[in-house]
Amino acid sequence: MPCRIDFDNFFKSAMHQEAFGFQRRFAEALHPLVQVPTGLGKTAMVVLGWLWRRRFGSDEVRSATPRRLAYCLPMRVLVEQTARNAKKWVSTLRSAGYLDNDVPIHILMGGEEADDWEIHPEREAIIVGTQDMLLSRALNRGYAASRSRWPMQFGLLHTDCLWVFDEIQLMGAGLATTAQLQAFRRLLGSKDGHGCRSVWMSATMRRDWLKTVDFAPSVDDLPLLELDVGDRSHPEVKKRWTADKPVNKADSSIGDNTGLAREILKAHKPGTRTIVVVNVVRRACELWDAISKSNSAPQAVLLHSRFRPKDRDEHIRMALAGPPAEGVIVVSTQVIEAGVDLSAMTLFTEVAPWASLVQRFGRCNRRGEDSGARVFWVDLPNKDADAGKLATPYDLEVLTEARRHLNGLKDAGLKSLPGVELSFEHHHVIRRKDMIDLFDTTPDLAGNDIDIDRFVREIEGSDVRVFWRNWDQKANNAPPQDEPAPRPEELCPAPVGEFRDFAKKHDGKVWRWNFLDETWEKADVAKIAPGQVFLVHADAGGYSAERGWNSTSTTRVEPIRFSTGTKGESPDGNGADWLCYANVWQTIAQHTDEVCTEIERILTELEPAEAEALRLTARWHDRGKAHDVFRTALLDGVPDAMKLWAKAAGERRRYGRRHFRHELASALAVLIAPGDTIPAALCDLVAYLVAAHHGKVRLSIRSLPNERRPDANGRFARGVWDGDTLPETDLGGGVIAPTVTLSLEPMELGLCEQPPFAGQPSWAERMIRLRDTLGPFRLAYLEAILRAADWRASRSTAPSAGAREATRG
Known about the structure:
Blueprint: H1 7-15, H2 21-28, E1 33-35, H3 42-56, H4 59-63, E2 68-73, H5 79-95, E3 105-108, E4 125-130, H6 131-138, H7 150-157, E5 161-165, H8 173-187, E6 197-201, H9 216-219, E7 224-226, H10 229-233, H11 235-241, E8 247-253, H12 257-267, E9 273-277, H13 281-292, E10 299-303, H14 309-320, E11 328-332, E12 346-350, H15 354-361, E13 374-379, H16 384-390, H17 396-407, H18 432-438, H19 453-456, E14 463-469, E15 492-495, H20 496-505, E16 510-514, E17 519-522, E18 533-537, E19 543-544, E20 548-549, E21 586-587, H21 588-606, H22 611-620, H23 628-632, E22 645-647, H24 662-672, H25 680-691, E23 716-717, E24 720-721, E25 725-726, E26 729-730, E27 736-737, E28 740-741, H26 763-774, H27 776-793, H28 801-806
Parallel strand pairs: 1-6, 1-7, 2-4, 2-5, 3-4, 5-6, 8-13, 9-11, 9-12, 10-11, 12-13, 14-18
Antiparallel strand pairs: 14-15, 16-17, 16-18, 19-20, 21-22, 23-24, 25-28, 26-27
Helix pairs in contact: 1-3, 1-5, 2-3, 3-5, 6-8, 7-27, 12-13, 21-22, 21-27, 22-25, 24-25, 26-27
């Protein structure tokens, strides 16, 4: 049992200041609704409250506190600050002796995560991510993530996880999804919601925002955390509550960048920070240009969501740094509204929805320490036609309502803001059937997936991700087949609409990896969809370090350079699971014993009801590696040709059959295994987990469009053919699997008619029944546990480039 530590001492040790009352109340009872003004420390409240409960709460409190914290921010920029603060607090607590080990903190910002956050499902972890990255994973379609990892991330984020949604007034379509997901966790397989809880936070919280079709019955009973009399009387809170922020209307209107730049430069005070918040990226760039061109301009920093990570980090560093003698002007889009602890002496903001304006006001005189702070708001032009056009991305009616409140506002301090009843209309609400359909990650025959974008964010805010490379277009118009997969440092978000136009203008220079044909193909403009990843030739332009994504730029883009290449699948690919490669020779028995050891380590901490099924899965998961196709993929350097190997050092040949999946052969062998080997009650679950342990074969078994069998007789799927034989195989632990002849009859619908499956249900029927019994979240979670054990057992050395290249064909 852990020692008991008082929360106030714990908080003060991390923050070097006393906890406010609301922060203490959150730690004592995780309130699902939080209405606290910006700038008072909601992030510290969440992170330190969760960590204190996990480490120092009573047994009851600890068991009621999920082991993973998923902190979701609505914007694509500046989540690093939340993660950076969390890392600082954890480090401080370790130095003070409160923590005896680190709590890993992961950032999901796009691209395949380098730190593999899924590999330790039994450990505590803090996951900080953007709305599109986290919600897409919660819908089993992780943007810019490998398809094979979708189910694993899906399972972990829906089990034993505390979801925190910050600044929910900015979430758009994603807000309804968060409410529905919390309802689905109880409706689909678990009365306790799979150990998940959700917290929604906003300075302008309204319960009605969460009343979606399935979650509405629960909303009125959710406890609300807000400031009480004691909080407001605290000297620090009082200083922020009573901070003066006089409001003035700017003389220039939206769209008049030249005039507005003059006003900003005139209002700016040397030695201070001025923040300008603009509603559209293009306009922010144009305004930044106008300010930068002035001879009297101080340092000007541009912030928006469409930079490559290194350039974005540099812009953030300049924005957060102490202002130089001449001061600094930060021109930003809505990204500055959430997740950034940044204060300005002078604030300019375009008219925006009232909830957004409240957040923007919070960036001026944030701590109540600046004398002479001022707020200016920029109105729409008087002409109705211009006003409608420039209102984008908001509705003109919403901005008209906000103007009504602004016209009478003299001060934007917390004490002066009027109470405004804000409506929130949900246009796209995910339903139970949608969620069940999303559990199956198999694309259609054309390689397309279910579109989730309308459930993640507003359609007009949707992005693809782009990276730039060089290749010889004269010798070969297409990129080389072995072009390394993109790294997160290379990926730049680009709006879908603009990117479609860009691709039209640059035919032959925009490419996407086709995971079915395993080749690069020219981007089909009609099929460009959010979350996809595209390779662009450097000569096509479209980007600069100063302005970020710019579809009109024709200047060559300098690719990010790395000391070594990394070959592998594209982030949306369907090839090999490289984390399960090991650069050593191991027999099936040796590797299986290691996986079983890792499973026991995980089960000791998690103790799931399905522990026995997981043990059996670990023992049988690589049975299919005894298949001749797998064995002949090993080169002649195999140490002992008589042994059945699971892992190989050095290179491997290409598989002799396209799309061969050893785990399908393993699963079919499980279904045929003698009843005393695998109990009938566990057989379907073990078969499913075995088939799914690389994320490729799950609810359905089918051949791929370009897959062929030399003769016309017999069934075939994923490189496995009817009548294939697996020899007797040592699975370690004293388990010897007998010789078996494989049958693919279960891939057909209806009852099987031939031995060994005569009278038995099809694979699809078995798996759908399993999904509906355990629920999609639980089933994916069990997948995640098995796959984590396999990864960990395979991590003795990094995979070789040659081994990766071997199975691309």
